[in-house]
Amino acid sequence: MAEHLLFLTGKLAQKPLRRILDEINPEFEYTVHELGLTVAALMTADMIRRRLKDCFGADRVIVPGRCRGDLEQLSTDMGLRFERGPDELRDLPEFFGKKSKKPSLDRYDLRIFAEITDAPRMEVDAILRQARDYRRDGADVIDLGCLPETPFEHLEQSIVALKEEGFKVSVDSLDNQDLLRGGRAGADFLLSLHEHSLWVADEVAAIPVLIPAKHQDLDSLDRAIAGMESRGREFLVDPILEPIHFGFADSIVRYHETRRRHPDVEMLMGVGNLTELTHADTVGMNAMLLGICSELGIRAILATQVSQHACKALREADLARRILFAAREMGSLPKQINDGLMALHERKPFPYSLAELKELWQAIRDPSFRIQNSVEGLHIFNRDGFHSATDPFELFPMLGVEHDGGHAFYLGVELGRAQIAWQLGKRYNQDEPLNWGCAFENIDAKVDPHIYKPAGTTLKKPDKDNQ
Length: 467
Known about the structure:
nine-stranded parallel β-sheet, Rossmann fold
């Protein structure tokens, strides 16, 4: 027997809701019930509790996405499951057509090394605070970066303190003595050894990351790999990613060639030479670089957050690895899995056309202002008029709120948000903050059951047969 869904709505949305449900031809039975209010977005859980007298034999109740209140408590009180639908009616087909196929982001197979680049100049407590922040944003290993000709007298103390808090630790240095000290203090990884410094690995249990003895010299990397394999030791390999215009394209080729030569070795890519040394938004760079890692079976990256423009690089990499893992497991493109990497733009920024908004306006009978965007610009309307512009300053003289400071302030804030959203191609929802994806963790935003939540997830390493 088909599931029966009850849709609660308002007067203005009742006909469009029925039309969209008819168009998607759902596999469930449904009843549309107008709850006695004009605008569906004004619905609250308390209002539903007071006004809903008949559930029409429904198995579930779908309320508008902007419905406020505690639906869990409402479900308990009424003995029937209530859940929020999408904010916009136009998103109902995707809500139902893709909901059951929405992949989980709980799994990934790429380890993030997060480098604390100024560790020698930081006190142990400061190192621990930064490590906790990095772990919150998705780091699996805390990398202590050593600086040339800079003493790191508290290296051992820092490693012990990090290990006591459950961190995996790597030490990154060009000085073999730093690496020896780090390995003897309990570091899990050493960055980096080459064919002439493999003796360090013989002295400690830490897993080395191997690099070419000279840049671009893959033959020397082959010899280092052979040396570690003869020892029967675990290791990672990093052919070195170069900055743009200083060998970037050739370095990508070297990663590909290393994988061709060594199909089964574990590899690491240091992504900071691109994210830190390119003045462009890092979210797209991380998605692209981790896409290369996903294709080549590179299961570790070294990431940094030194430059201010790269201050969210860890969070971006964490989400990217989860999306790409899900896409690879499904054998699909990394599309329509999670929108958190689209910080500046959205797939469907304008749910309604100007004609549809004017049709909605003609049914409004109250003085409350509604603000919506379309491709053409910003629109604000109530029973007294419909006004459009691309600059909020053009709209203010038409609104009649010159003597109502509170109302003017509210409309100014909302129209400012609407303008930013229109300029960038983002979705604007009145009374809600703009969604900046993983670039900003908005604690006041409405909880989305599919929203990305970073860190705290067990790393999943797939079988080699499934790579």
